[in-house]
Amino acid sequence: MTIRDVIRQCIHDHGVKQELLDLLGRRARGADRFDPDLMRACHPADATDNHGSFQGRMYDLIAYVEKAEREGPRCLSKMHVIGNVLFEFRGDEIFAESYHVAHETFVEDGVVQDYRIGGRYLDTFRRHDDRWLIQNRDIVYDWSRKMEGTKEFWDWMGYRNPTLGRRGTEDPLYAVQPSARGGLPPFSAIQKDTTGSNMMSAMQQMLDKQAITEVLYRRARAGDRADPALAHSCYHPGATERHGEFDGFAAEFIDVVSFTRARPGSPIVGMFHLVTNILIDFESADIAFCESYHVAWCQMADGTDATIGGRYLDRFARRNGRWAITHRDVIFDWSRMEPQTAKFWDRHPAKPFLFGKRGQDDPLYSYVRRGV
């Protein structure tokens, strides 16, 4: 095998893994946005599912979900956060184990109930008409919690008109990306073929997706570590943002409205944003739309812990070789406001723990430069 053959195989395998990661993300989007057509599009007609009390054809499960949405307890929100994906290539099949945490909120007997379910998808993928689909899915349940709902974060903050997620066609995603609903995106020739010029295009698209993903991660770091210079670097000049009650220039949000720039009297003591389920669609070589999930944990100065699940709807552009955000919508899907509890590290008071800080004293900055 020549060096070129090795490179082509590596590009092919990485491209397949990226296709499967996107498929997992779109399958989660279908469940969370209640999009049965998208859910069906992720599976062939003879796909099977082992899903707790249900074992049988995947399409029958989706029909059951449609009926439950119409007749069962009212579902206020669903959010399936995916991480830790491991693939095994097995000839004509690919097996994957992926971790997930499902956040689901229902109204049961007039009471709002929050469910948290941690588990894993054991998926077998097969090719159908040149694209990979989920042939069989086993869902493994590892842990769960049921909790009565709490006051919403956006009400606690006093937001009068926040952008809220919806289950259905009214979700803000479809106002900015109508093609996201109803099915999988058109299949790219790059995904079918990694020879010749397509190999170079496939490589470039992988690099572009990685660059965009790192912008998302740096923007999360900037907010959590109160690093405004880093936050500004994630946007192009003139970029806009809609976030809570704010609708204007991203630079103003960073410097004046948000808590990215630390200031006295901030109601937030600590923040931690976990970014997952990143789906990137290229509209051209230099323009992309990205939906990403996030779960934010915020320690409030009044002794409250806020947990917020939501999404970023980002427009990206490459200018002068640099990918950055041109517009961001922040969607709120669910939240919990709870009194702070005793800390885990309080059990070991004599141990020298490293604690996160909002600012230059965070342990991170003994390894990396701030603002970069």
What does this molecule look like?
The mean pLDDT is 94. The protein starts with a helix and ends in a 33-residue tail after the last strand. The protein is α+β, with helices and mostly antiparallel strands and 372 residues long. It has helices spanning 3-32, 36-41, 58-71, 153-156, 173-176, 189-192, 196-224, 228-233, 250-257; strands at 48-51, 54-57, 74-90, 93-108, 111-128, 131-148, 235-243, 246-249, 268-284, 287-300, 304-319, 322-339. The strands form 2 sheets. Strands 2-1-6-5-4-3 form a 6-stranded mixed β-sheet, covered by helices on one side. A 6-stranded mixed β-sheet has the order 8-7-12-11-10-9. The longest helix is centred in the first third of the chain and has 30 residues, at 3-32. The chain is globular, with a radius of gyration of 22 Å. A hairpin with a 2-residue loop joins strand 3 and strand 4.
Short description:
This protein has 372 residues and is of the alpha+beta class. Helix content is 28%, strand content 42%.
